[in-house]
C-alpha cells in the first residue's frame, strides 16, 4: 500500500504453466522470490518478455521491528490516500485452479484496511488471546 504497487501472492505449488498464466493475466513485471523458489520463478519468467526475477533472502522481522524508521521516510512514502486510491488493488491472491488455471482475485486497499480493522477489533476485545498463529486460517465472510 505504501509503495503504490500491487502484490501478487503466487503459490509455489502451481505448475509452471499456471504461474506464467497468472503473471500474464495480472501484467506482472517483477517476481520477488526467496532462494528456495528461485528456480520456479526463473523458469516461469523466461516465457515472459521484459520480466525480471529478484532473489531476496528471508527477512528477520523481529530484528527489523527493533530498528528505527528511516528519517527520510516521508520523502519516499506517500501516506495520503484519496477515495480513488482506496479502490485500487493492493493485493492479488488467486483461486486454487481446480477447474482450470488459477484465477486472480483482486483485493483493494479498502479491503485490506478493513481486514486490518477486524484484526484490531478482535485483539482489543480479546486481550487474553493470541490473535493470529501460524496454523490459523482466516475465513473471509464478506464479498471480496
Automatic annotation (TrEMBL):
Provide a Gene Ontology MF annotation, just one: medium-chain fatty acid-CoA ligase activity
Where's the AMP-dependent synthetase/ligase domain?
5-144
| Family annotation (Pfam families) | AMP-binding (PF00501)
Matches recorded under InterPro entries: AMP-dep_synth/lig_dom, ANL_N_sf
* Gene Ontology BP term (one): fatty acid metabolic process
* Family designation: Belongs to the ATP-dependent AMP-binding enzyme family.
For this protein, the record's PANTHER family field holds: ACYL-COA SYNTHETASE, ACYL-COA SYNTHETASE FAMILY MEMBER 3
What protein does this entry describe?
Answer: AMP-dependent synthetase/ligase domain-containing protein
Q: Which organism is it from?
A: Rhizopus oryzae
